[in-house]
Amino acid sequence: MSLDRAAREKLVRALAASMIEHAEELTSLDQAIGDGDHGLNMKRGFEAVLATLPGLADKSLPEMLKSIGMTLVMKVGGASGPLVGTFFMELGKALPEAPARADLVAATDQAINAVKTRGRSEAGQKTLLDVLVPVQGVLAGGGDAGAIAAEAAQAADRTTPMLATRGRASFLGERSIGHMDPGSRSASLLISAAVAALEFEAIS
Amino acid sequence: MSNSSSGNVGIVIVSHSSKIAEGAADMVRQMVGNAVPLAWTGGDTDGGLGTNVAGILEAIEAAWSSAGVAILVDLGGAETNSEMAVEMLAEDRRARVVVCNAPVVEGAVIAATESSGGSSLAAVKRSAEEFYA
User: Fold this and answer.
1) Which of A15, A22, A64, B18 is deepest in the core (most CB within 10 A)?
2) What does the longest C-alpha to C-alpha distance in chain B come to?
3) Topology annotation, domain B10-125
4) Where does the signal peptide begin and end (chain A) (predicted)?
């Protein structure tokens, strides 16, 4: 997969649009079991990313991803800044300029491990890892764009009955059960936006 | 944000609320005067409730001491953002900054009191963490 400048810009705009368009939904999910700022935080972060265009898309794919990550770290303003930002930065560090699927599999694995370290968390605690980990499994297993997007959506849904043991929602104990994790929802939206923008089938 | 130069361990207060951060810093000042480098930060980059890495980096810089800096945080995001900020420091400084696992107000006052006696970074951290353990 080699992304030209137009494709890189398309990817950035798709990621940002998914967060900006769903800001209210994410905030309302976060109001149920968190501090109610997730939508606004992610919107602020991705608006800041958009503001770095067009120069952002002039960078190579790895440099662009690192830059997106750094902007999110600096601008999001909640724990999701360092968590999602770390994911992008580590992807940028691990990916070559024209990644094959095996490179994506290895890079996403590395990025997920960095998120685990940053959050001192594992899958099963009702966090974005509950989307990232199973989606990475589908990617590693050879799943196509449809399978990846479907798993992202289903994985976010599966956080609804989970008990939160990490993050602000964990303060609620059993009352966190029955609400979708906002961080899982935003991760799912970003993944769906990315595979759609990348015309992922082209990656072999 | 306020500062004072000395060889004592610096204290940084990070809260989601700038009012809490500032108020905790006032309480520290009342206890130790200007004997300890002190800085605070609170709020996201738009001024709402939250924490931000740039503000934390500035606070670490403002409270910098060759003896190191102890950071006191309130809730999860403050801790995660503080750890991120520490990681972004130059390598020679990184090892001299710690995030304390202690209540933000009480921990800041205790840490500053310990620091004002000339204690090491490790002792400052231990005091803050042990008081309520």
Assistant:
1) A64
2) 38
3) Rossmann fold (3.40.50)
4) none
Q: Give me the domain span that covers residue A35.
A: 5-202
Task: List strand residue ranges (DSSP E) for chain A, in order.
Answer: none
Domain ranges for chain B: 10-125
Q: Å from B24 to nearest chain A CA?
A: 21
Q: What is the ipTM of this complex?
A: 0.86
| Closest-CA residue to A20 (of A38, A2, A46, A1) | A46
How do residues A128-181 score in pLDDT, each as one tens digit?
A: 999 999 999 999 999 999 999 999 999 999 999 999 999 889 999 999 999 999
Closest-approach residue (CA) in chain B for A79: B77
Asked whether A191 and A171 are in contact (CB, 8 A), the reply is no
Q: Enter the pTM of the model.
A: 0.92
Considering only alpha carbons, which residue of chain A is nearest residue B79? A79
d(CA A89, CA A110): 11
Q: What single-letter DSSP state applies at residue A100?
A: -
Residue B99 phi, psi (nearest 5): -100, 125
Q: What angle do CA A173, A179, A181 make, to 5 degrees?
A: 90
